[in-house]
Design goal:
Radius of gyration of chain A: 30 Å
Strand content of chain A: under 5%
Order of helices and strands of chain B: EEEHEEHEHHHEHEHEEHEEEHEH
Number of domains of chain A: 2
Distance between the termini of chain B: 39 Å
Strand content of chain B: 25-35%
Shape of chain A: elongated
Distance between the termini of chain A: 58 Å
Radius of gyration of chain B: 22 Å
Helix content of chain B: 25-40%
Number of strands of chain B: 14
Mean pLDDT of chain B: 90
Structural class of chain B: alpha/beta
Number of helices of chain A: 18
Low-confidence stretches of chain B: none
CATH superfamily of the largest domain in chain B: P-loop containing nucleotide triphosphate hydrolases
Structural class of chain A: mainly alpha
Mean pLDDT of chain A: 80
Number of domains of chain B: 2
Largest sheet of chain B: 6 strands, mixed
CATH architecture of the largest domain in chain B: 3-Layer(aba) Sandwich
Oligomer: heterodimer
Largest sheet of chain A: 4 strands, mixed
Number of strands of chain A: 4
Largest interface: A-B, 45 and 49 residues
Chain lengths: 452, 298
Amino acid sequence: MKLRWLLVVLLAGLLSVVRRLSRRARAQRSARTRRAEPGDRRRPDRTSVICLIARREIRERVRSRALLVTSALILLVVAAAIIIPAHNRGRTTSITVGVVGVAPASLAGTVQRAAQSVGTTAHVSSEPSLAAAERALQHKSLDLAVIDDQRLEMLAAPGPTDTSSLAQFARSLAAQLGIARAMAQAGLNNQQISTLYGYRALPIASTGHGPSPSPRNATSILGIIVTFVMLQQYMGWILMGVMEEKTSRVIEVLLSSVRPLQLISGKVLGIGAVTLAQAGAIIAVALLVGELTGSSVLHGASPAIMASSVLWLALGYFFYSWVFAAAGAMVERQDQAQAVAFPLSLPIIFGYVYALVQTSATSISLLTKVLAYLPPTAPFLMPALVGRHAVSWWEFLLGVVVDLASTVALARLAAKVYERAILRTGTRVRWRDVWKERGTGEHPKAPVTKAL
Amino acid sequence: MPGVLSMRGLSRRFGDVQALRELSFDVPAGHVTGFLGPNGAGKTTTMRAIFGLTELNAGTVTWNDEPVHEGVRRRFGYMPEERGLYPTMRVGEQIEYLGRLHGLSERDARAATASWLERLGVAERAQSKVADLSHGNQQRVQLAGALVHEPEMLVLDEPLAGLDPTATDEIGAILVERAREGCGVLLSSHQLDQVEDLCESVVIIDHGALVVTGRVDDLATSGPRRLVVRVEDDRDARWARELAGVRISEVGAGQVRLVLEPDVDTNVVLDAARRAGRVTEFSYQRRRLSEVFREAVR
């Protein structure tokens, strides 16, 4: 409950910052329009310069076909992830059980009980011979066969980790047939047997603490996947956008009037606004589709899980965007961009895969908790923990604070790298070049390697 | 308001290369100043230093005695040697954007963009992407980006490179007009005849150091006498090579330009020319900027 309120406060704070920035820029714009005579020029403050740069980024991205295509693809995948399970929920495939030879009178009832215990249905079919039953298994007209009330036969016996409905059913049926034989051997009469089968399981109560008894949470999985896809996409945009400014040499014109930090901040904020808008559209579509289909994927998802995914997508974006912007300043060609992007993407890939595994793990390890606080992996691990109700509000808040503090420190470092690398043209700038003493840097006409 | 851009003691080292050596000169407002020097002389580094795009090891750049900081630079226009525009952005939006970054309001930026694109003959391409324009038109758009905010100082690195003669004349006229309206213009170029036509003053540097600076007229009338002699059917001016105190400056187009030492008698030169053939031209001429340049960086 507290976590939900915390998320509401954090998201409201994020929206408030965005609104305040845009209101301030609007006020400055209208003040200038009111006061300015034609040709009158006033020095723009830093915020409005950043807003101008961000506006250009938003306008160019919104116009690009890439945004439309990727948005459509992501929306399709999300809609499919909601619709398909909802559709399949109402279409349970019945399991066909063949019976060969002698069978107890209670077999049909036992089969039904085994089917109910795993949430499926089953029906019994009488087979004339073992050979006929085996042929039917081969042709998949039978799922399993009970041979002379002695053994079960299947095309492939289920392994201990097989969690499919058929495997669970087979294990349940085998156990129940064994119990029925044991009861018969114990000499119990039908009434006694009926009493035994009429048992009622004891209820299991939740204390409200610890991991969810149903660890796999579809909403948090969906959130992790969307975060991964969007981070990959937007980091590519940042990297290529910075590289384009360097390659086209427009950077020299821009930096003659604005500071590097303003330029990189405007780019990060502009693309960030597009990210949030796209995430908002995805959530809106997910909610709408979920509501229309009565999907169970979103049914169990509290708003806290979705809000947490959006918040961590934003935090992840702002953390990684600085890194990729600095990397973009060091390259001039597509192949160089790929070479520099791959190692930077590894924490994203690791966090994504590890978080997906954790959504179905039986317990939460210390490593998982630690990774949930580390900014490179937190955008995936923290929503995973939220999905499992395995994080308290103060732990969540601590994660946000650690991430924000790291992002601020990283932004300062990345701005320095960007500033030192962006005007060095001719060849790829290496990390060691960036840290070399200032004042020995780029020669405007010489390759960097020579100049350094 | 008339002003002056002053470079004082600029020094910049790139590893083993000393790009600028205590370079000092002024660029007054209201003038077109040519910035000349052979390749690698340090022109681009100097221009970048004005905009803080390269760090200086020593020296200062001031505008009216005020250090050139971010706010001052916004009142300058810059056209770098390596042209730079967003290739997929529309021309009109791009110029408007640059105007706004320099402090123009949205309305003024839009009006100035329309006006400059019209003036530079690319108004009909305002909705085109920059990448779709020809080299010449991209050059015009680049210049519009430097002019859109009515700068007090224009710093243009090779603004005439790659332009046809008509475009060169048009852009040259615009630069002169801006200067007449009080803007300072510093332009580098290797097309010395055009610089001579456009510029009131020149600054010539070599190996990062100042070699010559002054008004074009003063430089043209200073130095030893120049004599232009045209002898019919004479292509190599062999007759002038043996004359004492006479140096051949240029040979071409059927004429020879001679540089005379003070004590040379021009009658001796005329006699030598007559012996080579019929003399159709024999006149004193001003020193060309190309000669000033060659003599300065020899």
